[in-house]
Amino acid sequence: MSALSLRNVWVEYGDQIVLERINLEIASGAFISVVGPSGAGKSTFLRLILGQEQPTRGTILLDGTPLPPEPGPDRGVVFQRYSVFPHLTVLRNVLIAYEFEASKVVGQLTGKARRDAIAKSEHLLEGVGLAAHRDKYPSALSGGMQQRLAIAQALARRPRVLLLDEPFGALDPGTRAQMHALIRPLWRELRMTIIMVTHDITEAFGLGTRLIALDRPRLDPHAPGRHGAVVTYDLHLSRGGPVPIPRFSKPLDSKSLDSKSLDSKSLDSKSLDSKSLDSKSLDPSDEQANARERRQNA
User: Fold this and answer.
1) pLDDT value at position 19?
2) Which option is the CATH number for 32-53+72-84+143-256: 3.40.50.300, 3.40.190.10, 3.40.630.190, 3.30.750.24?
Protein backbone atom coordinates (compact mmCIF):
# COMPACT_ATOMS: atom_id res chain seq x y z
CA MET A 1 0.00 0.00 0.00
CA SER A 2 1.21 3.48 -0.85
CA ALA A 3 1.97 5.82 2.00
CA LEU A 4 0.46 8.66 0.00
CA SER A 5 -1.96 8.68 -2.89
CA LEU A 6 -2.90 11.85 -4.78
CA ARG A 7 -5.75 11.32 -7.23
CA ASN A 8 -6.60 14.03 -9.74
CA VAL A 9 -5.69 16.81 -7.30
CA TRP A 10 -6.36 20.42 -8.32
CA VAL A 11 -5.67 23.62 -6.38
CA GLU A 12 -7.38 26.82 -7.51
CA TYR A 13 -7.50 30.32 -6.03
CA GLY A 14 -10.42 31.99 -7.76
CA ASP A 15 -9.53 32.17 -11.45
CA GLN A 16 -5.92 31.14 -10.85
CA ILE A 17 -5.03 27.45 -11.15
CA VAL A 18 -1.91 26.54 -9.15
CA LEU A 19 -1.86 22.74 -9.54
CA GLU A 20 -3.84 20.55 -11.89
CA ARG A 21 -4.20 16.84 -12.65
CA ILE A 22 -1.75 15.68 -9.98
CA ASN A 23 -1.81 11.87 -9.84
CA LEU A 24 0.89 10.26 -7.72
CA GLU A 25 1.39 7.05 -5.76
CA ILE A 26 4.19 7.46 -3.20
CA ALA A 27 5.41 4.25 -1.60
CA SER A 28 6.08 3.97 2.10
CA GLY A 29 9.73 4.67 2.94
CA ALA A 30 10.47 6.64 -0.24
CA PHE A 31 12.61 9.78 -0.30
CA ILE A 32 10.91 12.13 -2.74
CA SER A 33 12.71 15.20 -4.10
CA VAL A 34 10.37 17.84 -5.54
CA VAL A 35 11.94 20.39 -7.88
CA GLY A 36 10.68 23.08 -10.21
CA PRO A 37 10.91 26.81 -10.93
CA SER A 38 9.58 29.43 -8.56
CA GLY A 39 5.79 29.68 -8.70
CA ALA A 40 5.33 26.08 -9.83
CA GLY A 41 3.35 25.11 -6.73
CA LYS A 42 6.02 23.17 -4.82
CA SER A 43 5.20 24.71 -1.44
CA THR A 44 1.48 24.40 -2.18
CA PHE A 45 2.04 20.70 -2.87
CA LEU A 46 3.77 20.37 0.50
CA ARG A 47 1.02 22.27 2.34
CA LEU A 48 -1.57 19.92 0.84
CA ILE A 49 0.14 16.91 2.37
CA LEU A 50 0.70 18.73 5.66
CA GLY A 51 -3.02 19.54 5.83
CA GLN A 52 -2.64 23.32 5.85
CA GLU A 53 -4.54 23.55 2.56
CA GLN A 54 -7.29 21.49 0.97
CA PRO A 55 -7.47 20.51 -2.70
CA THR A 56 -10.16 22.22 -4.75
CA ARG A 57 -10.75 18.93 -6.51
CA GLY A 58 -9.42 15.43 -6.05
CA THR A 59 -8.51 13.20 -3.11
CA ILE A 60 -5.40 12.69 -0.97
CA LEU A 61 -5.07 9.41 0.93
CA LEU A 62 -2.61 8.49 3.68
CA ASP A 63 -2.28 4.72 4.00
CA GLY A 64 -5.64 4.31 2.28
CA THR A 65 -7.46 6.77 4.55
CA PRO A 66 -8.52 10.30 3.51
CA LEU A 67 -6.00 12.83 4.76
CA PRO A 68 -7.29 14.81 7.77
CA PRO A 69 -8.10 18.45 6.91
CA GLU A 70 -5.53 19.77 9.40
CA PRO A 71 -1.91 19.07 10.41
CA GLY A 72 -1.35 16.11 12.69
CA PRO A 73 1.46 14.24 14.50
CA ASP A 74 1.63 11.70 11.66
CA ARG A 75 3.18 14.43 9.46
CA GLY A 76 6.26 16.32 10.60
CA VAL A 77 7.63 19.40 8.87
CA VAL A 78 10.93 21.30 8.78
CA PHE A 79 10.96 24.74 7.16
CA GLN A 80 13.85 26.67 5.63
CA ARG A 81 13.64 29.17 8.47
CA TYR A 82 14.54 27.56 11.77
CA SER A 83 11.22 26.90 13.51
CA VAL A 84 12.36 26.37 17.11
CA PHE A 85 11.22 27.97 20.36
CA PRO A 86 13.76 30.68 21.25
CA HIS A 87 12.76 30.76 24.96
CA LEU A 88 13.38 27.02 25.49
CA THR A 89 16.66 25.16 25.79
CA VAL A 90 17.72 22.60 23.22
CA LEU A 91 16.46 19.76 25.41
CA ARG A 92 13.15 21.46 26.15
CA ASN A 93 12.59 22.15 22.44
CA VAL A 94 12.47 18.40 21.85
CA LEU A 95 10.88 17.47 25.17
CA ILE A 96 7.90 19.73 24.56
CA ALA A 97 6.68 17.41 21.78
CA TYR A 98 6.29 14.57 24.29
CA GLU A 99 4.72 16.91 26.85
CA PHE A 100 2.01 18.08 24.46
CA GLU A 101 1.39 14.50 23.37
CA ALA A 102 0.67 13.42 26.95
CA SER A 103 -1.04 16.61 28.14
CA LYS A 104 -2.48 18.82 25.41
CA VAL A 105 -3.85 21.36 27.90
CA VAL A 106 -1.13 21.72 30.55
CA GLY A 107 1.83 20.57 28.43
CA GLN A 108 3.79 19.12 31.34
CA LEU A 109 4.99 15.71 32.49
CA THR A 110 5.96 14.52 35.94
CA GLY A 111 7.60 11.51 37.54
CA LYS A 112 8.53 8.47 35.47
CA ALA A 113 6.73 9.76 32.36
CA ARG A 114 8.95 12.87 32.36
CA ARG A 115 12.13 10.83 32.88
CA ASP A 116 11.21 8.57 29.96
CA ALA A 117 10.49 11.58 27.75
CA ILE A 118 13.83 13.15 28.68
CA ALA A 119 15.61 9.91 27.78
CA LYS A 120 13.89 9.86 24.37
CA SER A 121 14.77 13.52 23.81
CA GLU A 122 18.41 12.93 24.70
CA HIS A 123 18.53 9.99 22.29
CA LEU A 124 17.25 12.20 19.48
CA LEU A 125 19.73 14.96 20.32
CA GLU A 126 22.53 12.43 20.23
CA GLY A 127 21.35 11.30 16.82
CA VAL A 128 21.56 14.83 15.41
CA GLY A 129 24.82 15.65 17.18
CA LEU A 130 23.47 18.10 19.77
CA ALA A 131 23.83 16.07 22.97
CA ALA A 132 26.63 18.35 24.22
CA HIS A 133 24.45 21.44 23.69
CA ARG A 134 21.31 20.28 25.49
CA ASP A 135 21.28 23.16 27.98
CA LYS A 136 21.93 25.96 25.48
CA TYR A 137 19.32 28.25 23.99
CA PRO A 138 18.81 28.47 20.18
CA SER A 139 20.41 31.94 20.11
CA ALA A 140 23.71 30.31 21.13
CA LEU A 141 23.60 27.84 18.22
CA SER A 142 24.78 28.23 14.64
CA GLY A 143 22.36 28.04 11.73
CA GLY A 144 23.19 24.42 10.99
CA MET A 145 22.78 23.46 14.64
CA GLN A 146 19.39 25.17 14.82
CA GLN A 147 18.28 23.25 11.75
CA ARG A 148 19.44 20.01 13.38
CA LEU A 149 17.33 20.94 16.38
CA ALA A 150 14.31 21.57 14.14
CA ILE A 151 14.78 18.12 12.59
CA ALA A 152 15.00 16.47 16.03
CA GLN A 153 11.87 18.38 17.06
CA ALA A 154 10.00 17.12 13.98
CA LEU A 155 11.11 13.52 14.58
CA ALA A 156 10.08 13.43 18.24
CA ARG A 157 6.55 12.22 17.45
CA ARG A 158 7.82 9.63 14.95
CA PRO A 159 5.75 10.91 12.01
CA ARG A 160 4.92 8.61 9.13
CA VAL A 161 5.71 11.40 6.66
CA LEU A 162 8.42 14.04 7.11
CA LEU A 163 8.07 17.17 4.96
CA LEU A 164 11.15 19.29 4.24
CA ASP A 165 10.54 22.72 2.69
CA GLU A 166 13.97 23.77 1.39
CA PRO A 167 15.49 22.91 4.78
CA PHE A 168 19.11 23.47 3.73
CA GLY A 169 18.67 26.44 1.39
CA ALA A 170 19.96 29.02 3.89
CA LEU A 171 23.04 27.02 4.91
CA ASP A 172 26.57 27.38 3.58
CA PRO A 173 27.89 24.51 1.40
CA GLY A 174 29.93 22.91 4.19
CA THR A 175 27.06 22.89 6.69
CA ARG A 176 24.70 21.68 3.98
CA ALA A 177 26.95 18.68 3.30
CA GLN A 178 26.89 17.89 7.03
CA MET A 179 23.09 18.02 7.02
CA HIS A 180 22.98 15.67 4.05
CA ALA A 181 25.17 13.21 5.94
CA LEU A 182 22.81 13.54 8.92
CA ILE A 183 19.45 13.11 7.19
CA ARG A 184 20.32 9.94 5.27
CA PRO A 185 21.03 7.69 8.30
CA LEU A 186 17.98 9.07 10.12
CA TRP A 187 15.79 8.28 7.11
CA ARG A 188 17.13 4.72 6.90
CA GLU A 189 16.88 4.13 10.64
CA LEU A 190 13.34 5.45 11.09
CA ARG A 191 12.06 4.11 7.73
CA MET A 192 9.79 7.07 7.21
CA THR A 193 8.57 8.66 4.01
CA ILE A 194 10.33 11.97 3.26
CA ILE A 195 9.15 14.60 0.78
CA MET A 196 11.70 17.36 0.25
CA VAL A 197 11.23 20.55 -1.78
CA THR A 198 14.51 21.94 -3.08
CA HIS A 199 15.93 24.21 -5.79
CA ASP A 200 19.26 22.37 -5.74
CA ILE A 201 19.26 19.70 -8.46
CA THR A 202 22.43 18.09 -7.09
CA GLU A 203 20.80 17.82 -3.68
CA ALA A 204 17.64 16.39 -5.22
CA PHE A 205 19.51 13.63 -7.05
CA GLY A 206 21.94 12.99 -4.20
CA LEU A 207 19.35 12.43 -1.47
CA GLY A 208 16.19 11.26 -3.19
CA THR A 209 15.09 7.84 -4.37
CA ARG A 210 12.58 9.51 -6.67
CA LEU A 211 12.49 12.93 -8.30
CA ILE A 212 9.28 14.76 -9.17
CA ALA A 213 9.42 17.94 -11.25
CA LEU A 214 6.55 20.42 -11.26
CA ASP A 215 6.20 23.01 -14.02
CA ARG A 216 3.70 24.85 -16.19
CA PRO A 217 4.07 23.43 -19.73
CA ARG A 218 1.16 25.56 -20.99
CA LEU A 219 1.02 29.34 -20.74
CA ASP A 220 -1.68 31.63 -22.04
CA PRO A 221 -0.27 35.21 -22.17
CA HIS A 222 -3.81 36.61 -22.08
CA ALA A 223 -4.77 34.55 -19.01
CA PRO A 224 -1.61 33.57 -17.06
CA GLY A 225 -3.58 31.79 -14.34
CA ARG A 226 -5.63 29.63 -16.67
CA HIS A 227 -3.24 26.66 -16.57
CA GLY A 228 -1.64 25.21 -13.45
CA ALA A 229 1.53 23.23 -12.84
CA VAL A 230 1.60 19.51 -13.57
CA VAL A 231 4.11 16.71 -13.01
CA THR A 232 6.46 17.10 -15.97
CA TYR A 233 9.06 14.52 -14.83
CA ASP A 234 8.75 11.54 -12.51
CA LEU A 235 12.13 9.82 -12.24
CA HIS A 236 12.85 6.77 -10.09
CA LEU A 237 16.47 7.00 -9.00
CA SER A 238 18.55 3.90 -8.28
CA ARG A 239 21.88 4.05 -6.51
CA GLY A 240 24.74 2.67 -8.57
CA GLY A 241 22.70 2.68 -11.76
CA PRO A 242 22.51 5.01 -14.74
CA VAL A 243 21.64 8.59 -13.93
CA PRO A 244 18.34 9.73 -15.48
CA ILE A 245 18.56 13.29 -16.75
CA PRO A 246 15.51 15.42 -17.62
CA ARG A 247 15.01 16.06 -21.34
CA PHE A 248 16.67 12.76 -22.25
CA SER A 249 14.41 9.91 -23.31
CA LYS A 250 16.67 7.30 -21.74
CA PRO A 251 19.02 7.29 -18.74
CA LEU A 252 22.59 8.18 -19.51
CA ASP A 253 24.68 5.06 -18.93
CA SER A 254 28.44 5.51 -18.82
CA LYS A 255 28.93 1.95 -20.13
CA SER A 256 27.13 2.85 -23.32
CA LEU A 257 29.79 5.39 -24.23
CA ASP A 258 32.08 4.05 -26.93
CA SER A 259 35.67 4.76 -25.95
CA LYS A 260 36.61 4.64 -29.62
CA SER A 261 34.53 7.76 -30.18
CA LEU A 262 36.95 9.61 -27.92
CA ASP A 263 40.08 8.20 -29.57
CA SER A 264 42.57 10.88 -30.44
CA LYS A 265 43.16 9.16 -33.79
CA SER A 266 39.65 10.04 -34.80
CA LEU A 267 40.60 13.73 -34.82
CA ASP A 268 41.58 15.00 -38.22
CA SER A 269 45.00 16.51 -37.74
CA LYS A 270 44.72 18.25 -41.08
CA SER A 271 41.83 20.33 -39.73
CA LEU A 272 44.23 21.75 -37.14
CA ASP A 273 47.16 22.23 -39.53
CA SER A 274 48.72 25.64 -39.09
CA LYS A 275 49.22 25.84 -42.85
CA SER A 276 45.48 26.03 -43.29
CA LEU A 277 45.48 29.37 -41.49
CA ASP A 278 46.07 32.44 -43.59
CA SER A 279 49.04 34.07 -41.88
CA LYS A 280 48.48 37.30 -43.81
CA SER A 281 45.10 37.75 -42.22
CA LEU A 282 46.84 37.75 -38.86
CA ASP A 283 49.62 40.20 -39.77
CA PRO A 284 49.11 43.45 -37.79
CA SER A 285 51.26 45.48 -40.24
CA ASP A 286 48.78 44.81 -43.05
CA GLU A 287 45.91 45.93 -40.87
CA GLN A 288 47.72 49.18 -40.01
CA ALA A 289 48.45 49.83 -43.70
CA ASN A 290 44.81 49.35 -44.60
CA ALA A 291 43.77 51.79 -41.85
CA ARG A 292 46.19 54.48 -43.20
CA GLU A 293 44.85 53.98 -46.71
CA ARG A 294 41.25 54.44 -45.54
CA ARG A 295 42.17 57.67 -43.73
CA GLN A 296 43.90 59.07 -46.82
CA ASN A 297 40.95 58.26 -49.06
CA ALA A 298 38.63 59.93 -46.57
Assistant:
1) 92
2) 3.40.50.300
